[in-house]
Amino acid sequence: MKTWNSYVNPLVSSLPPSGIRRFFDLVTETKGVISLGVGEPDFITPWHIREACIYSLEKGYTMYTSNHGLLALRQAIAADLEAACGVTYNPKNEILVTVGVSEGLDLAVRALTCPGDEVLIPEPSYVSYAPCVLLAGGKVITVPTTMNEGFRVTAGKIEAALTPRTKILILSYPNNPTGAVMDRRTLLEIAELVQARDLLVISDEIYSRLTYTGEHTCLAGLPGMRERTVLLNGFSKAYAMTGWRIGYAAGNPDFIAAMTKIHQYTLLCAPITAQMAALEALKNGRLAMTQMVQQYNRRRLLVMHAFRDMGLPCFEPGGAFYAFPEIAGTGLSSEEFAERLLQEEKVAVVPGNAFGPSGEGFVRCSYAASVEDLTEAFRRLAAFCRAHGLRPKTISAPRPLPGERRPLAGGATG
Amino acid sequence: MEKVLEILEILESDARLEAADIAVMLGMEKEEVQRTIKELEKNKIILRYMTLVNWEKAGDEKVMAMIEVRVAPQREVGYDAVAERICRFPEVRSVRLVSGAYDLAVFIEGKSMREISNFVATKLATIEGVLSTATHFILKTYKQDGVMFEDGEKDRRLAVSP
To answer: Does ipTM surpass 0.90 in this model?
Structure first.
């Protein structure tokens, strides 16, 4: 007898289920858990942003906007990008307001990928990239990165993965799940290769504001990269606005027009309420954002210190709000580690292999949690590591590249 | 200097944090943090470590009042002499010189309304230089020192998310 599942598009049914989803069910069944598995800020959207949104509702802003998004918002985004990255975009035809970076990613991949095109994805990677490419008919080529290289993909590694069908490279720094940031020099080498081999880049820079060591380099700001890059960014992480689902894409007018075509038929426009809130965030959100970034950085240093104390090797995450310690020394797999930690000590972390095979041997710990919760979680984590025979040893950090300023522990914040 | 301000800011939000933790958070040595805090205490920049209590919830029947005090400033000492006299009473929790329709904002704590009215009538209003007082009893505290007393903003995030 035919099952209903057999009616489902085979492309969809063949997509692997999210490893995070599976673990989520396990966590929600356990009581008294401290979760370091959350991929979003622990801050609530700053009040002035919420208040502006309520005011917009009171004034009756409940209608569609232009497919591109409110012009005022696009203008504010353009000004923000120019100030932060030194890249100029025309708000009229080079910026598209999307329903989070998630939609921007889907649009960019669908607009640019032809069946059989190869898309390079450095790993460990955020869970959405590969499925988006598969749904668009593209072929996923992963490029594994390691802790020793600071989970930074290099031009050499990209070059080794190139074939005549390679069309797009997806970059995501600061990185989820590793917390890795990209240095300007490596990025320049990648930019050179991308141009020489006529590739395109989709650059997901959602964590750009959460950079603690040095300054974030925007790929589109590098020579020759503006036209080849679809820059994705949004408000979720910098302004603690995950649930609003609001982001944007910036790129050359042809790419943005192609993405807008899909967007206008599938979503029409991002919710106006979220757009009004985003506008307020850009206008008046600077101070609240800086304060949040400062808090993250302090916790980041606490977390690094805690890992060092308990003997879990962890490279220094320079951005986002994740640490990605290596747990292979316990003799457990990522999933075993996460499951046992949950059962024995009631701390939730995300198994590294949820972010691809090269994440095996690691777990992702989010430090978007209160200092109180972090302290208790790390007390439990330390007990777990002791019980599983780990001895304190020194922490490993990515070797600084020539010419790269070694960031100080208390580095710049925002 | 910036680090000193950061230490103060951290302690102001949580005075129980250990010097060792503060040191880690700010990329400093533990001894340096300890030394800085000692210095701040010595210089009366850090005056005291206190606990913010919701007395109503604790079941204590304290009564609080805010009193607007108009004062005739005196030659050479301005408002200071009167303010200092008011400060000496242990019932007085805080005294601030403010701009506007009155001069001193005085917070008083007592066991009952009668006790506070008594204090105002016999002690405060009779101080030389005090022109008038207006007493406002505190009915409910919603927020104090940046902390909401009854906060509905819990962590509602999913336990695990990508």
So the answer is: no
